[in-house]
Known about the structure:
By secondary structure, this protein is of the alpha+beta class. It has a domain at 23-75. 31% of the residues lie in helices and 8% in strands. It has three helices and two strands; from the N terminus they run αααββ. It has helices at residues 25-38, 42-53, 59-68; strands at 103-107, 113-117. The longest helix has 14 residues, at 25-38.
Amino acid sequence: MHPEAKAGFYRKKPIAFTHPRKTDSDIVQKILELRTAYKMGSKKITYYLERYHGMNVSQSTVTRIFNTYGLRRLERTARKRITHSKRYAKSVPGHHVQVDVKFLVFKDLDGKTIRRFQ
């Protein structure tokens, strides 16, 4: 029997080498970077990635990545970091502002109709 043919008789592990729904490595690197550099928790990282990078990752996935790479809970002395939001400023005042107007109809002493808005 050929020596390479013997390898076919050994039992292989019944697991896949790659999972089809595995989290991309660039997302994992971004999560690890946010955790180590900014000391963010899993919920804040989830919101941050969705808002600023368009990456949809669940909070439990972020927690699992922490556990896989040995990043445990944040210290109690870790500062609460505020994630800054994007400011909305336009050069035209009143841009995209909706105002509801209610017209009121009154009669003055002479019986003349007066319209006022509120």
